[in-house]
Design a protein that fits this description.
The complex is a heterodimer. By secondary structure, chain A is of the alpha/beta class. Chain A has a single domain, classed as Rossmann fold. Chain A is built from five helices and five strands, in the order βαβαβαβαβα. In chain A, strands 2-1-3-4-5 form a five-stranded parallel beta sheet, with helices on both faces. In chain A, strand 4, helix 4 and strand 5 form a beta-alpha-beta unit. By secondary structure, chain B is of the alpha/beta class. Helices cover 47% and strands 8% of the residues of chain B. In chain B, strands 3-12-11-10-9 form a five-stranded parallel beta sheet. In chain B, strands 4-5-6-7-8 form a five-stranded parallel beta sheet, covered by helices on one side. Chain B is built from 19 helices and twelve strands. The chains are: A alpha/beta, B alpha/beta. At the A-B interface, helix 1 and helix 3 of A face helix 4, helix 8 and helix 15 of B.
Chain lengths: 133, 579
């Protein structure tokens, strides 16, 4: 479990208006003592750039309208090539069951579907974000 | 036919009950209260503190009496078809024509969406006067205002909407259909005008005069107040919306120009009260902007429409619709409207999506049936019923059809069409209608105090977000039960078939785009784009000569794409980086 203040980048594509859940999550993560950066992005590279600039521990992508596999493929591979393998990558929203295995294979560690509890997400983050040296 | 101005509205206030009668019913209520309190005590509940609330937080009584509605002016309840239209817009409700079936459709390539359009039509999907209503949603790529070969489009082509980006795609969608016998709703994001231009260019190609087209544009630049991001700052959004309204005012008398999107507010978290207040506030802001351009309320207001949610608090959601009709009518009258149709709230109901669950998805059929039934009792004009797999994916053909069947069963089997406003006169419903109206009035006044909707985005977002949080906090605290999600949970997973956009449609859409660019007349396209750029630049710099929409249509005729047209709009009207 991390001893520092955990920094989380929550993100959603610009024109995806289904942001009720992720905004709720942002508030609750903040209330749980984390620092939350919220990003609307057009291209995956913006997510990676922001994650690196903001030195985040966690990237949480919200998607209710498909397209998440392509985005996460780009995000995880760019994190790898740019040497940021320790960032915890999570996805939430409407994520079809059959996507879960491929997402995990590319390094997405947590998948939180409709109805997920924030308390579970907070616990997951605490359990998976390594302490900083 | 010229519309009559309502004379009845000018009458003096009529009291519904005489004082002696009310004395008697108050005695009855005192007697009931004693009995009720005894029962409460037996359940260990202190009657002095016992209180229930509507989902909006309005205090409710356990039962209602005549004295609860005695303060309401009878004219405010009135009669269907008479100002302020609380009981319905017209003297007849569903007696001669039921509400229009208007399911949302859109996925994959245009031909694939067309298949669903034809299929649902074959299953009895019916609009007004024999016309078919096609409620079509554009995909995320179009919503982003880019083309399918843009790096941001990867994985999103034909998802959550159809891959339609040009006049040629319109042909793939509509060829063979009589454009004058249908009503097309173009569900776009901020790419309203480019998509509208494609549709007009396509109609021109078919030789159909624009004045014979009917349908809707979203024109909902105001939605950035409560969800997502926006392509344009609020003032630019209002300007763009008014430009389209003005164009239709002159050219397209049957076109519905503005969709006041209460549904989106509700989905983002708004309560019934907030949905009413902020929908009216948005409508008023846009109406005043139109008037500032010299448009007459009686001319443009009849083409405004409302898209309203029908959510879980059964009676409050009905009261909401009735309160909205009354508030909007009075607000429009105050603006100077005199024709009934300029004061009418024409409603497209969208049954709530946010109340549906991924867990035990078949439960959603019950929920949507209750929502749709409530909307019918409230007297809606058109309806989209969410499919039971709403929380999982785009609807399959089977779930889409099932959602249509929900409407058809209510229309055909319940005898609901026989009587208009069947809950009108219910002490509870009339009291609740007034409660919603009063509470919404307070919120509306606050938005107006802030300078009107376009200046109140922060206030509106804060209110809606706070309501969304309260909703979820209540679920997490088990104060609000969601069957199958936080109560009556099972480990058994209800398997339903899930829709997937066909593999290969993304590649095909990109291939089509490249073909379009390769074989269009390059010099004609370039010349048309120069005209668009010039018209938009003038529009953006206060020299509007109303050439923007015609220039966009001409560009679409020269095979310009949505992404290309949006790029021009963004360049001149989009957000600037802070200096």
């Amino acid at each position: 479990m991390a001893s520092h203040t955990i920094r989380v980048l929550l993100c959603k594509t610009t024109m995806e208006s289904h942001d009720r859940g992720v905004r709720f999550l942002a508030t609750k993560l903040r209330d749980a003592g984390m620092e939350v950066i919220y990003l609307n992005f057009l291209e995956p590279v913006e997510v990676v750039d922001t994650a690196i600039e903001e030195d985040v521990d966690v990237i949480g992508l919200s998607s209710s309208v498909e397209g998440h596999v392509a985005v996460l493929e780009a995000v995880t591979s760019q994190l790898q090539t740019r040497g940021h393998r320790r960032v915890l990558v999570l996805v939430g929203g409407v994520i079809p069951e059959e996507d879960i295995a491929p997402l995990q294979a590319m390094g997405v560690q947590g998948v939180f579907g409709p109805g997920s509890y924030v308390s579970d997400i907070i616990q997951f983050i605490h359990d998976h974000v390594p302490a900083r040296v | 036919m010229a519309e009559k101005t309502d004379k009845i509205a000018e009458h003096e206030v009529v009291q519904m009950f005489d004082p002696a009668f009310l004395e008697e019913t108050q005695r009855l209520e005192a007697r009931w209260r004693e009995d009720f309190n005894k029962i409460a005590s037996r359940f260990g509940v202190d009657p002095a503190t016992y209180q229930t609330y509507s989902h909006s937080g309005l205090p409710l009584k356990p039962v209602y009496f005549p004295q609860d509605v005695a303060h309401i002016a009878y004219e405010d309840i009135g009669s269907p078809g008479i100002f302020p239209y609380t009981r319905g817009l017209l003297a007849a409700q569903y007696q001669f024509m039921p509400w229009a079936n208007q399911p949302v459709m859109g996925y994959g390539l245009p031909e694939e969406t067309r298949e669903r359009m034809d299929y649902l039509r074959s299953q009895g999907m019916t609009g007004y006067f024999g016309k078919t209503f096609y409620n079509l949603v554009y995909d995320l790529v179009s919503h982003e205002g880019v083309d399918p070969d843009h790096p941001a489009a990867k994985g999103r082509v034909g998802q959550c909407g159809m891959a339609v980006y040009s006049r040629r795609d319109m042909a793939r969608l509509f060829d063979g259909l009589d454009l004058t016998q249908m009503n097309v709703v173009h569900i776009t994001g901020y790419e309203t005008i480019p998509v509208f231009a494609h549709y007009l260019a396509y109609a021109a190609q078919r030789g159909v005069p624009w004045s014979k087209l009917s349908g809707n544009t979203m024109n909902w630049y105001y939605q950035s107040a409560y969800c997502g991001m926006t392509t344009f700052p609020p003032q630019a959004g209002v300007d763009l919306a008014v430009e389209l309204i003005q164009f239709c005012n002159d050219e397209m008398p049957h076109w519905n120009t503005l969709n006041l999107f209460g549904y989106g507010m509700e989905e983002a978290g708004a309560t019934a009260v907030e949905e009413v207040a902020f929908s009216v506030a948005a409508g008023l802001d846009y109406a005043r902007a139109c008037m500032a351009q010299g448009l007459e309320p009686d001319n443009f207001l009849p083409r405004f429409g409302f898209q309203i949610a029908q959510a879980n608090d059964f009676f409050e959601e009905i009261a909401k619709v009735r309160a909205l009709r009354r508030m909007w009518a009075k607000s429009c009258k105050a603006l100077g409207a005199s024709k009934p149709s300029a004061m009418h709230v024409r409603i497209h109901t969208h049954t709530s999506g946010v109340e549906l669950t991924a867990q035990q998805p078949l439960n959603n059929l019950v929920r949507t049936t209750l929502h749709a039934f409530g909307a019918a009792l409230a007297g809606t004009q058109a309806m989209e019923v969410s499919a039971y797999d709403e929380a999982l994916a785009i609807p399959t053909e089977a779930s889409h059809t099932q959602a249509l069947r929900v409407q058809q069963i209510i229309q055909e089997e319940t005898n609901i069409a026989a009587v208009a406003d069947p809950l009108g006169g219910s002490y509870y419903l009339e009291a609740l209608t007034s409660q919603v109206e009063e509470a919404a009035g307070v919120l509306l006044a606050e938005v107006e105090r802030l300078g009107g909707y376009r200046h109140a985005h922060e206030f509106i977002r804060d209110r809606i977000e706070t309501s969304a949080q309260r909703w979820r906090d209540q679920i997490d605290a088990h104060e609000r039960i969601v069957v199958g999600m936080n109560q009556y949970v099972t480990d058994e997973v209800q398997k339903v078939e899930k829709f997937k956009v066909s593999v290969g449609s993304e590649e095909e859409a990109v291939r089509r785009l490249h073909n379009l660019r390769a074989d269009r007349d390059e010099s004609r396209w370039k010349a048309a784009m120069v005209q668009v750029d010039d018209a938009v630049a003038r529009f953006a710099h206060g020299e509007n000569d109303h050439r923007m929409i015609p220039a966009m249509v001409a560009a679409s005729q020269a095979d310009a794409t949505t992404g290309e047209l949006m790029a021009v709009l963004k360049r001149h009207l989009g957000w600037r980086s802070p200096v």
